[in-house]
Amino acid sequence: MIDTKHKKRLFIKIIFSLLSLILLFTLISCDPSEFLADDPKETGSEKESLNVETGEGSSDVLKLIEKRDFRELYPNFTSASRSQYKLEDIISRQEQIDERIGLQTMHLENVRKLDRASDERISVYEMNVVMQTSYGEMTRPLTLTFLYDELDEHWYLEYSPSLIFPGLTNENDLIVQRLNAHRGGIFDRNNIPLAVDGKGQIVGAISGLYDKADNAEVAQLLELTVEQVDAIMSQSWIGDNMFVPIKTQMEFNAAQLKKFPELHLEMRLFDTRLYPHSHSIAHLVGHVGEVTQEDLDNDEEGIYRERDMIGKRGLESLFEEELRAKRGVRVYLSGNEKQILYEVPAEAGQDFHLTIDIELQNKLYSLFKEDEGQAVCLDPYSGDILAILSFPSFDPNEFVQGISSASYQALLNDSRLPLWNKFQPRYAPGSTMKIPSAMAGLNSGVLTPDTTKTIIGKTWQPDASWGSYEIARFTVYDSPQDLTQAIVISDNIYFAQVALEMGRESFQEELLNLGFTEEVPSSYPFPTAQFSNSGDIGDSVMLAASSYGQGEIEVTATQMAAIFSAVAADGNIPAPRLLMSDEITVWKENVVSGANRDVLRQALRDAVEQTHRSNAYRDYATLGGKSGTVEAAWDSELERISLDSWFIGFDLDQPDMVIAIQEQNVHKSQDRPSAARRFGEVFDLLYQGESDSSGE
To answer: What is the pTM of this model?
Structure first.
């Protein structure tokens, strides 16, 4: 009986032991995905679900890796991994790597298990890591190894630095090398550089050797104030034998360079943006400068980094996207064998070739640089903008590395507003508007070259409905006058009567045919011409005033030059062309007939011969043009109306260039030149004289 019971117990123990061995074998033979997966059916999918049991529930390992959540992953590393690597060290290195490459997202793709029949306590998975970074997409292979802990009956992930970035080890590092290329250049029509990358010059003092007693002499040598040099040499960070930057510029002259050693000054070269023609082309080309925090905040694509250069004004800003070099990157693992993991070559920015003739531009600037206003030179056939100036000007080279506060304040304090781009806005054109008004009247049929009007006295109004308002003319001419005579004496009343006879709708329609209120077809953003602040011309008083360029009618000097081009050349208004890559196009065709063009050309010639003989007439050329004077605004300082002077004209025998000049605030001094006077002097320069060709 006892033997039977003993045998029965022994049999049960044997059966139980066999079942335990079978269960243990089953546990060991399964992989982590089968043992821990929420749904075993998913193990065959593109991305297998690898779950690990934590103290707080179940977490998907792959998702945690993709999320870069090493704090959550850490308890699931093998005990050996946790002994070798501290959590904070892992996180610190991961954050450094992510910042270097500008990691945005990470995905694991093509997850697959390797067959390892030799050891069923090890499961190995291979996959691809796809990273979206600020430099582009990077794809790297990754291997994950899981070890089964029999005591815990749990699969643990073996950690290595490759989990941060595939290929990373304890001995190497991930290096991200930024590859740079040149910013695109800006050139004139003859391929002369206007804005290019190059070497600038910076002069500084060698502390310890430099004597502050020389501050006054240094200030004079470098065209600075003594206060500026005092402030620079008194900075708290200066120690012995240090280079203390004082002034940067494109190039110091020979006399300055010779004097530097005597004063313990040293000149060094540095990479910068250069503007060889500085002042003369500053408002058009503009300049670059270091990105500001606002620039970085507005940079949604993450293109810029601190200390990067960005276009700040002018064409440098307008064409920033095209001029900016496309930054490249080389990502590699350091070590004896530098392993390049990813590389995108840098691309140089796009070059721009302008229609500007910088030699012409510099000649004009030498004449206008002390004035206040603008000038535009337009080829009447092609519409090429040959020169376009705003004066006075500034040196854009000073702004690249950061202009000194004293120099900047001096520009702000200049009442002539050297920083303001004066050829950008539209203005009341004054009596130069009488040429477009004449074209409008001729095209409408209301006016002919022989239309004669007899106007008596200095002022006029059509009827009593105008109340006390009357139109005044500068020259009283009581005899009958035709269109040519009205242009020669610039009779406001004559043109007001023509506009009133046309009526508002007809007058506006004819000006529409000349491009008014229409977007200017140019790569440069010239504003559209307007009839009035509200859109349309209002009452008859405004209509009359608009005919002679007052009222609220406004237009740019460039568009006025384009309209005059129809008279100078072939009856067409050309599209103002600034880029050589743009097609030559006609903006408005046949806006004046050949016969009427001849009449207007002769009227412009007569105006120079008779009205402007003392300032615009030259016996060596057949010059013609129309002047204008605009009552711009009230000058509160001088307590009088401010006046702007206009002149637009060309050489009738050689009509290859229309010149539009606006001299602003000529009321401020009798010494300020009229636009008509400057018009004649321009041709003195072009046909006879020499000028400063440097643009400074």
So the answer is: 0.79
